[in-house]
Amino acid sequence: MPCLSPKGHIIYTVTFGKRFTVGRATLLWEISQGRYRLSNVTEALGLASLFGDEIAQYSEGRVNASGLIPEKLRTVRDGEATDENARLDWKQMILHMDHDGGQQHPLLPGTQDLSTFAFQLGCFPEAVLRQSFTMPIVTGKKYKSYRLKPQKTVTLELPIGRLHTLHLKARDTSSTTEVWLSPEKHWLPVKIRFTNKKGYVFEQAAKELVTES
């Protein structure tokens, strides 16, 4: 059986810097007949909406007892198609990327995309999550392996309640991504933080989480 529920959604409040709310992110997924579809839409709110940039990523692929096996990633900005797309050919083990005129890379086993990786973390045994491990991730613009390291187990006060979480951190030369998984919420990502190369911090905190069997 897949490790994810057949259907669900998470709505996050997006903040910038010291709790300045700038948007909302909505993750929706559906699993049927061994396949999944996942959408990840971030919308700017308030004054931030003046700058546009509604960003939507759509991922689809197969799913099994070990988790998600992405096959296609598509990115749309403000309703317009972009070249931040990827196709994962698991038969030929080739990753095709549209970015920069088209790129091809050897496809590494266990590769996830920017929308699936946080969900895939929840499919791993807890013993794996509590030690350092590597995950190849395609973002639409780049493809590289990230070293994820477990941090402290922490209790968070979130809009959806007080939750115990496992904190993981992935860092590369220019940015850091952190994920907080909640065992009380089926190991789903209830908080995500991204720090870019300029030191700007964007954080997503779950304010609604619904799963359906």
CA-based gyration radius: 17 Å
The level of helicity is: under 10%
Mean of residue pLDDT values: 91
In CATH, the topology is named outer membrane lipoprotein receptor (LolB), chain A
Work out the count of structural domains.
1
Shape: globular
Instruction: Tell how many strands the DSSP assignment holds.
Output: 16
- How many helical stretches? 2
Tell me the CATH architecture.
Clam
* Residue share in β-strands: over 45%
Can you identify the CATH class? Mainly Beta
Q: Calculate the terminal CA-CA distance, rounded to whole Å.
A: 12 Å
Helix vs. strand class = mainly beta
Low-confidence residue ranges: 47-51
Largest sheet: 16 strands, mixed
Secondary-structure element order, N to C: EEEEEEEEEEHHEEEEEE
